[in-house]
Amino acid sequence: MKILAVSGSPRKDGNTERLLKTALDIIESHGIQTEFFSLREKSILTCNACMGCEKGPRCILDDDFDPIFNAMVESDGFIIGSPVYFGSATGEVTAFLDRAGYVARKNGNLFSRKIGGPVVVARRAGQNFTVAQLLMWFMINGMVVPGSSYWNMAIGKQKGDVVEDEEGIKTIKDFAENLAWLCKLIKGKQG
Description:
Shape: globular
Structural class: alpha/beta
CATH architecture: 3-Layer(aba) Sandwich
């Protein structure tokens, strides 16, 4: 069993990365392998609707997309994290997910029945829309998204601020617990 996390934050060790690593720590504590990817300092071009992905399960654009996408395909599930920029997910996340969605859907719905969900952090507002934006991506790809004790979001502006949001941290931990439980259930390891 393996769950990945992909961070769309340009900040190293920022709040989004901290939330994702908090989730991965919980998942690992259940004996599930994890892997972390950051889109920071990666070249992720925007989809140009060339439909080259109809020829096979890869994007023909030449950048850093394919290794992360392939890891997602090989995983049992994944979490996508983004800070809120002007009320929505970062451009890096949007570019990456547009392409991942096209390649997956054009090649037999490669993410269908995988598990996962979004994790979002903002300074003040925009979390609800961003969670919904990312959640819709998981749903259109036929994925199974477990719930939590609240929406998967936390508050923080400066690096590390998010650890002061006790409810946000609890929400992410509860989400990770549910994700691990679901992963084991689907794999037949839990009753």
